[in-house]
């Protein structure tokens, strides 16, 4: 138990269970705040992508190029995009 008060004012203080509950609640509130920050950031990014629509005013498209090692994936993407891509 932690002692409560100062000097001649002494009380029972927090029990271990109360201390654990308080710490859990503080951690929970901290995590909820972090989740809200991520939600807010992602919403801003989503609206920005929707508003700008990519670098040429087009909708953004996600493409995955998969294949074995040394199959020429980077070469294919470079040839199609006209950019030098190394990975």
From TrEMBL:
PROSITE patterns: G_HFLX (PS51705). Residues 61-87 form the Hflx-type G domain. Pfam families: GTP-bdg_M, MMR_HSR1. It comes from the Eukaryota. InterPro entries: G_HFLX_dom, GTP-bd, GTP-bd_M, GTPase_HflX, P-loop_NTPase. GO terms for molecular function: GTP binding; ribosome binding. GO terms for cellular component: cytoplasm. This is Hflx-type G domain-containing protein.
């Amino acid at each position: 138990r932690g002692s409560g008060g100062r000097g001649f004012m002494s009380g029972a203080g927090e029990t271990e269970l109360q201390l654990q509950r308080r710490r859990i609640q503080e951690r929970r509130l901290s995590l909820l705040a972090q989740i809200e920050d991520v939600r807010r950031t992602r919403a801003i990014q989503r609206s920005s992508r929707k508003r700008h629509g990519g670098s040429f005013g087009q909708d953004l498209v996600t493409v995955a190029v998969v294949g074995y090692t040394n199959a020429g994936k980077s070469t294919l993407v470079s040839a199609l995009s006209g950019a030098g891509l190394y990975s």
